[in-house]
């Protein structure tokens, strides 16, 4: 069970990261469309798991490597955006959210 504070912080990070990826970090996901599906924050608000959906699926590995290599820069830009609301900017960990691929696979199997 996440607390109210965790939910608020995760929604704030999700909103700011998605606008950050659209405006300032386009070159990090070269040739792929990236959307942040969910964010999970640890109880002490020091770690954030960011689940990312990537289209097309073929570019997943390159995009994830790029996000991991630019992790510190993304965290710095996020800190500039939410620095007034949060005391500690959480460590960011990116994970692939492949739920859309799973749904598509189930849909093709049912047809």
Largest sheet: 3 strands, mixed
Radius of gyration: 15 Å
Structural class: alpha+beta
CATH topology (level 3) name:
GMP Synthetase, Chain A, domain 3
Number of helices: 4
CATH superfamily: K homology (KH) domain
CATH class category label:
Alpha Beta
Low-confidence stretches: none
Kindly state the percentage of residues in helix: 40-55%
Task: Tell me the distance between the termini.
Answer: 37 Å
CATH architecture: 2-Layer Sandwich
| Beta strand % | 15-25%
Average predicted local confidence, pLDDT = 89
- In the residues, how many domains can be counted? 1
State the shape: globular
Task: List the strand order in the largest sheet.
Answer: 1-2-3
Topology order in helix (H) and strand (E) letters: HEEHHEH
What oligomerization state is this entry in?
Answer: single chain
Number of strands: 3
What does this structure look like?
With 111 residues, the chain is of the alpha+beta class. The protein has a three-stranded mixed sheet. It is built from four helices and three strands, in the order αββααβα. It has a single domain, classed as GMP Synthetase, Chain A, domain 3 (2-Layer Sandwich).
Per-chain topology:
Layout: H1 4-23, E1 33-41, E2 47-55, H2 60-69, H3 71-82, E3 91-96, H4 99-110
Parallel strand pairs: 2-3
Antiparallel strand pairs: 1-2
Helix pairs in contact: 1-3
């Amino acid at each position: 069970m996440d607390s109210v504070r965790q939910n608020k912080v995760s929604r704030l990070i999700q909103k700011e990261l998605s606008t950050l990826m659209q405006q300032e970090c386009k070159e990090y996901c070269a040739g792929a469309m990236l959307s942040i599906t969910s964010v999970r924050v640890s109880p002490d608000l020091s770690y954030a798991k960011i689940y990312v959906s990537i289209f097309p699926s073929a570019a997943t590995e390159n995009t994830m490597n790029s996000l991991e290599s630019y992790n510190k820069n993304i965290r710095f830009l996020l800190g500039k955006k939410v620095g007034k609301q949060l005391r500690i900017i959480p460590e960011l960990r990116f994970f692939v959210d492949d739920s859309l691929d799973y749904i598509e696979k189930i849909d093709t199997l049912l047809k």
